[in-house]
Each structure stands twice: as structure tokens, then as C-alpha cells.
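Q: What changes when adenosine monophosphate is included in the input?
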Amino acid sequence: MKKTLKDMDVSGKRVLMRADFNVPLDENGMITDEARIRAALPSITYILENGGKLILMSHLGRPKGEFKAELSLKPVAEKLSSLLGKEVKKLDDCVGEDVEEAVRGMKDGDIILLENLRFHPEEKKNDPVFAKQLASLGDVFIEDAFGTCHRAHASTVGVTKDLPSAAGFLVEKEIEYFEKVTKNPDKPFCLILGGAKVADKIPLIENMLDKIDYLLIGGAMAYTFLKSRHKGIGASRCEDGLADTVDRIFKLASEKKVSIFLPRDHIVAKEIKPDAEVRTVDENIPDNWIGLDIGPKTIQNYEKVLEEAKTIVWNGPVGLFEMAPFSGGTCALAEFISKLDEVTTVIGGGDTASAINQMNLGNKMSHMSTGGGASLEYLEGKELPGIAALDDE
Ligand code: AMP
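A: The predicted holo structure follows.
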């Protein structure tokens, strides 16, 4: 077990906290979704209420190691200020003399936001000198950015060399749920996998086959599986060269008594556009048609399996949910799961979480992960460097 924020005495201390303020911005630099800022509020308020001097750091976008005015954290500081009803001072850099001076002038309960860490190439390189400069700003380090815990950067791993460290409330909850589903899941355990990329998710399937009872496959990934079962997939997206891998997965699944379910019918179109002609077809997709969502029989079939489950983990939408005609499968499963009782539901970050948030069903799930890549790596059984680096209890 890792130390958490409640194990740390923050009163009168300079608390350096890594948050994930990598929010989406529109062309005018306005924040279009503030969920990531809100997600950090429990740790922030706890630290401030307990008399800490809070120094927040984050990255935003991909500035590639250079200053880019449009990727400044200024809009985040403003939003955070309005959410907290208190001044959040945004500094012009994240290291250097001016930053050190501003931190020296802090009083208990003050809050400062450092400028975008990735304006410095040293951040992603986990440069030890840069990490030391960051660490010198705090007395303790709190990791609350689950979305970057799978990266060994200066602000996630480097700073822990010099500071006592612990998980913030957000990371603590992520660890709690991912540990539960990977180490001690209630059974039956059903994993739903979708999305477009297949090769990326093979390590996850291989790791999870030891733990799950059912694997429901949807999204474009289903077509690579169906092709290897000699089904007609028309012009659907499919990854070549994976036939042997898919065979191996079916073999492993049967050894481990895991049932794999594939779509029995599909929503298809000839073009990927919102006003395309759409049809529902059975198992084999005709030539020139593209499978873009699971069909009604598949939804029904998958719901029967989900109804039995005590643990559900979902990674990847089961259709091209961004376009209305192909969002039905993802919406139907999300709604179905949201109504189940006595089941632990863990939703992987990224696309799956945004699909469910769009339907306002996030609060009906046991846990919505805030990290896409990080949640995938957790389910692959990998150790996340940003978590491994934190102090043990
Ligand atoms: P991934 O990053 O692999 O999880 O893929 C997520 C993307 O897969 C989302 O943008 C979905 O719209 C897309 N997707 C899901 N089903 C399909 C499909 N049948 N054909 C093409 N794209 C899909």
C-alpha cells in the first residue's frame, strides 16, 4: 500500500502537487471540459483547509519542450480560482529564481500554479537537475495526476527522490479500484473491450484472461477477431497480421475457461458520415459495407452476460460513438450497466469515459478512470512508475 494524502502532515508545509490539468481548449483558448480541474478539487481543498501552502504543477497539451503562449496554464488558474473562490496565482515558469521567490512569499492556505511543465524538455526526460529544482519548491510531494502515472517524468518520478511522497485522493481512488479488479475481483468478472486499435490491447487481454470469466468484444476490434473466425467483414476496419495472435487468445481463453463473445449483428454503412445510409446486418457483413456499431441482437446478448456480472471493466467504445447513427451500442450498454445493482463498474479513461460522460452516466459507475493510457497499462499488469515511486505506507 502506498501512503496517501491523509498520512501526511501538511500543516505549514509547502505541498508540491502534480495535478492533471491537461484540459481540452477551443480555438479561443477557452476550456471546453473542466472535469479534470474539478477532479483535483478534493485534494486541493483538503491541503488548503489543513494549512498547507499549495504549489500545483501540470502539463497542458504538447508544447514539445518550448514556450507556447496558447498552451499556458493561465485559463486553468482562472477556472480554478473561480471554483475555489480564492486567488490562484499563476507563475510565468515552473522553475527558476522568480518561482523560488514567489514560493518563499507564500502563507499557509495560499495556492500557486506553476507554468506548463512541458515548456521544458527536461520534464519528459526526467532530467535529475530539473527534477531537483522542482522538488526544492516543496517539503512534501503529492501525486494526483493518474493520467501521467504511466510516465517516468521529472514531475512524477524525479521529484520523489528528494521529497516524502504520497498519493492524492484521485490517485488513491484509482489505485483502490484497479487493485481490486486486477487482484481481487468479485466474480463473475466481465471485461468489455472495444475501440479501434487491436494490437495495442493484446497485452491487456493476455493479462486479464487470468482474472475474467467473460470477454465481450465490440468496436472495430471485433472485425479483426471475426475475420480470423472466417466471417465476412466487408470493408470494416481490420488489423492485418494478427490471425495467429487471435488464435492464441481463443486457445488461451478456452484453457482458462473464459468465454469470448463476438458481435452477432452489426450496424453498417458504406461511408463514415452522419447522414450515411445505415443498415442492420447479421453475422456476415456484405462487401463494401463497413461495420460501425454492434447490432440489436448483440446488445441483447451482451446485456444477458452483463446482468450476471459482479465486476465489469470497460475499455473502448463498442462503435464509432462520436457519430450519432453509430453510438447506439455504446449508449445501450452504458445505460444498462448504469442500472445494475451490486456490481463494481470500472470505466477506462479516454474515449470510454468521454462517451459515458456525454450521457451524464459517470456518477452511476463505481469508478470512472481519469487516465486512458495509465488505465490500459494497469490492466496489462504493468507497474506504473509514477505510483511505484511513491512512499510505501
Ligand atoms: P481506441 O483508441 O483503440 O480505444 O479507439 C477508440 C476509437 O475507436 C473511438 O474513436 C471510436 O469511435 C472508434 N471505433 C469504435 N468502433 C469502431 C468501428 N466499428 N469502426 C471504426 N472506428 C471505431
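Observations recorded in class: The chain has a mean pLDDT of 96.
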